[in-house]
Amino acid sequence: MSLYKHWLPLALSSSLAACGGDLSGEYGEGSGADWEPVMSFKGSEVELTEFGQTLVGSYELKGDKVHITANGETQAFAIDEDGCIDGGTFIGRLCKKP
To answer: Which of 28-42, 43-57, 71-85 has the lowest mean pLDDT?
Structure first.
């Protein structure tokens, strides 16, 4: 099963309310030496890393949502007031690496 097929469908229930601007850099969980990247935005591409596997897709900001497309499927995520991505219950809150 691909990385995308494993975790992205589980996040379909997240509610969406994003802020404007471009996304760049790494978004993940934890802090300091325990920080783990999950999404890395570079230009119009995003790398999704989970369970040691990486999948490359594209993303687009649409109003208050970020739409990530990989393997022919698109998932929308919230960007909260702190600029963190809300991946729902399964993925969690992903904040930009300081």
So the answer is: 28-42
Domain-wise residue ranges, the chain:
3-96
Instruction: Work out the angle at residue 47's Cα, subtended by the Cα atoms of residues 41 and 52, and round it to the nearest 5 degrees.
Output: 135
Q: Residue 57: how many CB atoms within 10 A of its CB?
A: 21
Residue with tokens 């497309």: 69
Position 68: which residue type?
A: I
Place of tokens 């990530």: 68
| Helix or strand (DSSP H, E) at 97 | none
Cα Rg, the chain, nearest whole Å:
12
Residues 23, 3: Cα–Cα separation, whole Å: 21
* Structural contact between residues 40 and 27, judged by C-beta atoms closer than 8 angstroms: yes
Q: Is 43 exposed, middle or buried (CB count within 10 Å of its CB: 0-12, 13-18, 19+)?
A: exposed
Taking only the tens place, the pLDDT of each residue in 4-38 is 444 443 332 222 223 335 789 999 988 777 878 88
